[in-house]
Amino acid sequence: xxxxxxxxxxxxxxxxxxxxxxxxxxxxxxxxxxxxxxxxxxxxxxxxxxxxxxxxxxxxxxxxxxxxxxxxxxxxxxxxxxxxxxxxxxxxxxxxxxxxxxxxxxxxxxxxxxxxxxxxxxxxxxxxxxxxxxxxxxxxxxxxxxxxxxxxxxxxxxxxxxxxxxxxxxxxxxxxxxxxxxxxxxxxxxxxxxxxxxxxxxxxxxxxxxxxxxxxxxxxxxxxxxxxxxxxxxxxxxxxxxxxxxxxxxxxxxxxxxxxxxxxxx
Length: 266
Fold this sequence. Notes:
Blueprint: E1 19-24, E2 27-32, H1 43-59, E3 68-73, H2 93-110, E4 114-119, E5 123-124, H3 126-133, E6 136-140, E7 144-146, H4 160-167, H5 169-178, E8 181-183, H6 184-190, E9 195-197, H7 200-215, H8 219-233, H9 238-252, H10 255-265
Helix pairs in contact: 1-2, 2-9, 3-4, 4-5
């Protein structure tokens, strides 16, 4: 068993604008805001997201706080996955990046609000993993989603626990080991997405309708139901997520993966 990844206890960051939070009564929107990089998960973006999630967690007990959070990406992509350029030639970078991503996934899952992923565009690798952390995920047929890690000689272990919880062990094995990408419609057929709409406009309407309907539920009823579901499906098992991050980091730091990434990014 590889050593567990570092588990940062704070999400201190210097650029909170990388993740924006808009709270309007019972509805909140949390957006990845790195559109020029297709919202790729850098250390700074993950730190900004963790800061915003902490803000949401602090609102969890407020009578007038949000009951539903929509997670989405600014621009044409939801999230293009890990910023793999950042792990080239830096022995410590993989553990830092994947360890902090693991903590982010645990913190999102633990939110008392219902979290909906509005997958407006590409959701790749770690980005697709974030959709599995959410309580529900909606996309459109033209979106490209999936886990191409094995194609790049890296390992999707950091998100594997969430994929298994989303689609079951058998389908997770099929999805993660085959690599590649798929359209939103295929992802919905496999259960990786809960629904795929024909167009982006239809996606927006569906997300708005679902978020509004859920937000009409009782605050305690929603949060307690979610808390029990997390216990039932093993979402409270932080150790398996952290172990997955350590395995992913070990593979990314290997010569095989580093050579593949150098060939890809130069």
